[in-house]
Amino acid sequence: MGRQAKLRQQRKQSSRSAVPPEVQSADSAPSKPKSAIAQFLKRLNPFSTETEDLSWLEEENSIEENNRRASAIARESYPTHKRGFVLAVESPEGTPRLEYLPRRTLEPTLRQYGVSPSERKAIADLVKSYDPQDSFVVVYCDLDKSITASTCLLSPE
Predict the structure, then answer these.
(1) Residue 118 · residue 68 · CB < 8 Å
(2) Phi and psi for 115 in degrees, rounded to 5?
(3) Most CB within 10 Å of its CB: which of 22, 43, 73, 128?
């Protein structure tokens, strides 16, 4: 039997054993949507009977709340301290400690956390170049003492 004949035989056997989708039972569990858009649309379905894990929503709300807090601190502190940065230090409880520090304290603060000279310069450039009318710089220190810095937009008052 040649290769083509074997393939035809395998296809014929698999088509006999496969159950067409129309014949499947109605109580079989629906498959989870694969794409991100399908998952998002599934979350919006008000008639869904499945219970979903909503921890992603809590995280999103927490991030927004921390951004509002950091924005308020930056907005209130800039007139007094002028150019500076918000230091966000992660705590085991989950809510980071936020404080606005003037630019002159950047170098000693970063050195205290063991940040390399090239990274200190890059963060100093961020602090030097941000526009205080619509943004601020956050220097984030996690529980492992690793540092991340970024420029963030001020949230609306």
Answers:
(1) no
(2) -80, 135
(3) 73
